[in-house]
């Protein structure tokens, strides 16, 4: 969601709906003529879910139909350099989106916005679980 405002937004904020927090991740913040423009990703109420945030970053640039078209065009003719370049660009954005999601979760935790992380995000935050592990246990779905 693209937004414009007079004040520079925080990188991550939250609101409350019902009894659950939802998080707003603000990115691509630029100053334009004494105003600010930025893109926001709004999570579902509850925990900061890595996969949902990755999807939000990806969707800032590609919707589902665009992604399917890029993949199908590439698979239809992998020797077409234009289609291959478009596919590589999309893959690079997906990788960047994963890093952006991790950075947003870390920033929110380090700045007191995300105060009660669940075990699903321990690997991102470097928190050890009850078994002394902080690595991804393979249950995090890659986008």
Structure description:
The chain is α+β, with helices and mostly antiparallel strands. The chain has one domain. The protein has four helices and four strands; from the N terminus they run E-E-E-E-H-H-H-H. Strands 1-4-3-2 form a four-stranded antiparallel β-sheet. The longest helix has 30 residues. The two termini are 20 Å apart. The C terminus is likely disordered.
Helices, strands, pairings?
Blueprint: E1 2-5, E2 12-17, E3 20-32, E4 35-42, H1 50-59, H2 64-76, H3 81-110, H4 122-125
Antiparallel strand pairs: 1-4, 2-3, 3-4
Helix pairs in contact: 1-3, 2-3
Which key features would you list for this structure?
alpha+beta
Mean pLDDT: 87
Query: Total strand count, please?
Result: 4
Task: Note the main sheet.
Answer: 4 strands, antiparallel
Approximately how much beta-strand content do the residues carry? 15-25%
Strand arrangement, major sheet = 1-4-3-2
Encode the helix/strand succession as letters: EEEEHHHH
Runs in which pLDDT lies below 50 for 5 or more consecutive residues are: 137-143
